[in-house]
Inverse folding.
């Protein structure tokens, strides 16, 4: 075993940054799936947000306006999904895949002429003395605002789902829409709201790519990040805390792979590129074996609801 | 307030009309989009939807190409439709397609440069096995560990893509290729090639396999006990269990069929139209096939039409890029819209759309009507 | 055969979907791209070449393109459709289009094909590529002078001869001026993934790298270098917009002169199949203006190196050079032959790490 000479502070910092878009999109999808809806169009909503975000940020000069419009862009595409699956009862898997196809094309049209133009980017909060803590300080307390927004969102989603009445209703809708309907809860409205939230979060995640992480636009730039977010939701067993861990794992594996290479540690690249997926499968299996009695997926995940049926 | 209510039975009239309506809506929306992009909408739509079929210079070439492009989509979609009807979600056909192609090609290349009539059948067999075995990973995990099959099969696509890159750069790399990635040209090695069987038709063994699969799937659903079990499991899982349908067996079976067919599609593509295993061998047939399966309403003949329509938008889209200067992005957006409209208007055949509030009588009647439909 | 006859007959008919042109038909030139024209790198530069061709020949030419064409079956179909729709000259701009181009060209002897970066030629198929390694040598020379930590980061795509050749050329030039220089190579297994490219750049920077070179297509590494306050070299395009202070120079693929020349030859009937491999001398490889951050004397020596290569006085691969394992490759004063360069699959001595596989 060669001594691995890594800059751990920088590595931790990079894990936080790399995992942020995964985290934002996965938290959105987590709420969607908790409401019993499977939206495979995360990639499409994400890249639409990425395009909308950078176009607006460049035009207005304000990255915050960009983030707002990134969220709106993802939300808009989410509403298309909601209209089709909730209003018109279309199949969720096919509609989600269609959303991704449409999003990839639509975003490229939207951001034509913005290729490679640097975007105005955002700073971070001044966390004062925390930054001076050795090793951890510069890694954890000198990041941009959205990194902290992601962490807050994880907390917020947890509080919402498990500590509010509305969150309870949302979970009830996902676990048994017929029972929830019988109790007088508005199944469809709840789901549409969840999908809209999921779209906005995916859009924000896309905005993070174009406004912070890269930060510029190129066609097809999400390159599969939306699919990873979907994997993370399941990795996390539909729980915000574990989704956060999952985002760190995926971000960490990607960041570590590149850093090992950069540190001249000989690594089998293909094996490392596929390792996060293999790890997730292993974790998935472990979760499901431990909970033989049913698994953690919301019981109505992906099933259509029709009132009165 | 708009409400949708289930029909007692899917409307035959709307079943026939909805695809036409969807295409009409797509044409209208597409025309608006092209006009917004500053392209003549008429020319654009004609180039995409009509020229591949009727243009005198192109049709003789494009029509067979429709078959070539549609064959893997149809073959994979037929396999997927079994599972989808049973509520078993194999989203990773792309991975099974890739592994089938790699394993089949590896089996053949191990015997290079032998000339034997047995090599191609051996490769096809290994292609089928490759797809099947790759599909067994999510299937067995689902059956015996209750692991979510959607996610496992999807995650394995990314693993498979890395396997393809590794194979194209490593063990399968053409030793006479000057160090460039990619395998030998399988289509140029007689023993391994999957040629056009009848000149000018585009029909290769993959097309034949797709047609066979369509007929077999139709017979399965129309006549066989298994077809009945599959539908029962999808529509009434509890009733299926009472009827003695074993969920693990059904999962394994549906994954075996869809994985095997995806693997077949992979090896037919590698030995035929694509001709070799390159780094970017996967072009998303496995994902597009999911869309095709739903566009075809999981019906074998519907899938044939959906596969051909999808192929038309690809081929017409390429033409539109070169003839009318439409960006690829607009073609992708158009494909997405076509799918949205088809999925959206499908509601008309299954449901009645009404304005106004539900009357109590309707609500009470609906469940009984839905049961009657099954 | 039937296809051919139809194509021949159809060529006489007016083209329904095209704007009707009076008098002489313009030369119709088609381009097949492997990526989106918005990639900001490889495909973008080919498209710039196409636009320059339109500019240069005006009404005498009509160009078309299809972008993001997957290599393999789809490529062959698209090329065939181009041949069927009356194109006179077709440029296929990715190595992976080689067999597809050859197959279609067999069926259309009257159409001229030009395939980039491949080696299969025929009477109606020419091949062309650029000696990017000449540019790599110049940026390697600059990098060797500019690095303070002695560590240079290299973001590589796939381990193929083109990429390996570039690493070797840059390393040889850098180690010549700075014998202690170290190269850290990160393989991404993609030509294009801005987020990963940006991360790779950051990972290298954390390891103490203070100069970044890339052989992937997006501007993300340049942006990351700008952000970290270090220096980098643009790839395929001038990336100064992404790194106004970071970019020292860039290797620019300038296909325009070649496209214009070959199109004119087809128009005049003087085209013949050739294997073109042009570099700095012919202008196919250009260097973006040197940044002011480069010290005066280094700018001069880099320019001298570029001029020497252009004049044929200097070859970036001149012996003595040993392979990484120490076995001799080129003897004192010997220069590499094109065949070895074209298939290069080994590192030269001094580079650490292994080529994957």
């Amino acid at each position: 075993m060669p001594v691995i000479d890594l800059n751990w502070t920088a590595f931790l910092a990079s894990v936080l940054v790399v995992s942020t878009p995964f985290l934002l999109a996965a938290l959105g999808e987590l709420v969607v799936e908790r409401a019993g809806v499977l939206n495979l169009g995360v990639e499409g909503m994400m890249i639409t947000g990425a395009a909308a975000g950078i176009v607006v940020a460049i035009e207005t000069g304000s990255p915050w306006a960009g983030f707002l419009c990134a969220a709106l862009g993802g939300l808009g595409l989410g509403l298309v999904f909601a209209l089709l699956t909730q209003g018109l009862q279309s199949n969720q898997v096919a509609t989600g895949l269609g959303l991704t196809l449409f999003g990839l094309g639509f975003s490229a049209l939207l951001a034509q002429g913005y290729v490679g133009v640097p975007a105005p980017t955002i700073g971070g909060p001044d966390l004062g003395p925390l930054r001076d803590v050795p090793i951890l300080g510069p890694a954890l307390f000198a990041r941009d605002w959205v990194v902290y927004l992601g962490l807050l969102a994880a907390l917020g989603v947890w509080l919402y789902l498990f500590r509010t009445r509305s969150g309870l209703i949302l979970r009830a809708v996902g676990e048994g829409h017929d029972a929830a309907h019988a109790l007088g809860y508005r199944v469809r409205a709840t789901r549409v709201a969840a999908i809209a939230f999921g779209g906005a979060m995916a859009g924000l995640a896309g905005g993070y790519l174009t406004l912070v992480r890269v930060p510029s636009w190129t066609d097809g730039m999400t390159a599969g990040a939306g699919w990873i977010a979907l994997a993370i939701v399941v990795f996390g067993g539909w729980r915000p805390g574990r989704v956060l861990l999952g985002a760190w794992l995926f971000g960490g594996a990607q960041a570590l792979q590149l850093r090992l290479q950069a540190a001249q540690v000989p690594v089998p690249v293909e094996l490392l590129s596929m390792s996060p997926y293999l790890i997730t499968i292993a974790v998935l299996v472990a979760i499901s074996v431990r909970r033989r009695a049913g698994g953690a997926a919301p019981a109505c995940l992906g099933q259509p609801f029709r009132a009165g049926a | 307030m708009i409400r949708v209510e289930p029909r007692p039975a899917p409307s035959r009239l709307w079943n026939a009309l909805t695809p036409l309506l969807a295409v009409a809506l797509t044409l209208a929306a597409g025309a608006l989009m092209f006009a917004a992009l500053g392209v003549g909408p008429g020319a654009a739509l004609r180039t995409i939807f009509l020229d591949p079929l009727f243009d005198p210079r192109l049709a003789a070439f494009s029509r067979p190409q429709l078959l070539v492009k549609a064959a893997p989509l149809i073959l994979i979609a037929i396999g997927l439709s079994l599972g989808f009807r049973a509520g078993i979600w194999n989203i990773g056909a792309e991975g099974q397609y890739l592994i089938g192609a790699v394993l089949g090609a590896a089996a053949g290349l191990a015997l290079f440069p032998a000339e034997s009539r047995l090599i191609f059948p051996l490769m096809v067999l290994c292609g089928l096995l490759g797809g099947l075995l790759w599909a067994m990973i999510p299937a067995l995990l689902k059956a015996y560990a209750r692991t979510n099959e959607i996610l496992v099969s999807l995650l394995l696509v990314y693993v498979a893509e890395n396997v393809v890159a590794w194979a194209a750069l490593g063990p399968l790399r053409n030793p006479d290729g000057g160090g460039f990635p990619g395998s030998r040209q399988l289509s140029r090695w007689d023993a391994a090639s999957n040629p056009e069987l009848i000149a000018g038709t585009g029909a290769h063994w993959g097309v034949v396999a797709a047609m066979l699969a369509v007929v077999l799937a139709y017979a399965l659903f129309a006549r066989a006990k298994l077809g009945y079990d599959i539908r029962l499991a999808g529509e009434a899982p509890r009733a299926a269990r009472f009827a003695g349908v074993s969920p693990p067996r059904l999962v394994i079976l549906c994954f075996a069929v869809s994985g095997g067919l995806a693997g077949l599609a992979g090896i037919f593509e590698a030995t035929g139209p694509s001709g070799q295993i390159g780094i970017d061998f996967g072009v998303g047939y496995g994902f597009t096939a999911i869309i095709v399966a739903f566009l075809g309403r999981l019906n074998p003949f519907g899938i044939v039409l959906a596969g051909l329509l999808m192929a038309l938008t690809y081929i017409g889209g390429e033409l539109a890029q070169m003839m009318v200067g439409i960006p690829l992005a607009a073609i992708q957006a158009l494909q997405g819209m076509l799918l949205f409209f088809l999925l959206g208007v499908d509601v008309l055949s299954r449901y009645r759309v009404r304005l106004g509030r539900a009357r109590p009588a309707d609500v009470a009647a609906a469940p009984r009507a839905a049961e009657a439909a099954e | 055969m039937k296809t051919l006859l139809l194509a021949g007959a159809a060529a006489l008919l007016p083209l329904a979907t095209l704007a009707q042109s009076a008098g002489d038909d313009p030369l119709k030139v088609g381009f097949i791209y492997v990526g989106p024209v918005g990639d900001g790198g490889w495909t973008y530069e080919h498209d710039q070449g196409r636009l320059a061709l339109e500019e240069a020949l005006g009404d005498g030419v009509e160009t078309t393109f299809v972008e993001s064409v997957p290599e393999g079956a789809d490529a062959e179909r698209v090329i065939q459709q181009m041949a069927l729709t009356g194109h006179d000259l077709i440029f296929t701009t990715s190595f992976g289009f080689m067999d597809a181009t050859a197959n279609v060209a067999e069926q259309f002897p009257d159409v001229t094909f030009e395939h980039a970066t491949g080696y299969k030629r025929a009477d109606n198929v020419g091949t062309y590529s650029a000696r990017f390694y000449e540019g790599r040598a110049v940026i390697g020379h600059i990098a060797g002078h500019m690095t303070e930590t002695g560590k240079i980061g290299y973001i590589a795509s796939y381990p193929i001869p083109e990429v390996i050749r570039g690493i070797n050329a840059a390393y040889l030039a850098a180690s010549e001026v700075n014998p202690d220089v170290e190269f850290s190579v990160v393989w991404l297994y993609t030509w294009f993934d801005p987020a990963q490219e940006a991360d790779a750049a950051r990972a290298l920077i954390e390891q103490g790298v203070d100069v970044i070179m890339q052989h992937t297509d997006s501007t993300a590494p340049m942006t990351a270098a700008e952000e970290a306050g270090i220096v980098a070299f643009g790839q395929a395009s001038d990336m100064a917009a992404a790194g106004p202070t970071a970019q020292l120079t860039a290797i620019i693929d300038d296909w325009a002169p070649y496209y214009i020349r070959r199109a004119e030859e087809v128009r005049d009937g003087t085209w013949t199949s050739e294997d073109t491999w042009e570099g700095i001398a012919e202008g196919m490889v250009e260097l973006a203006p040197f940044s002011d951050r480069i010290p005066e004397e280094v700018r001069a020596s880099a320019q001298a190196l570029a001029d020497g290569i252009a004049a044929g006085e200097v070859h970036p691969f001149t012996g003595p050079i040993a392979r990484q394992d120490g076995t001799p490759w080129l003897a004192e004063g010997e220069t590499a032959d094109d065949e070895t360069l074209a298939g290069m699959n080994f590192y030269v001595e001094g580079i650490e790490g292994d080529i994957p596989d």
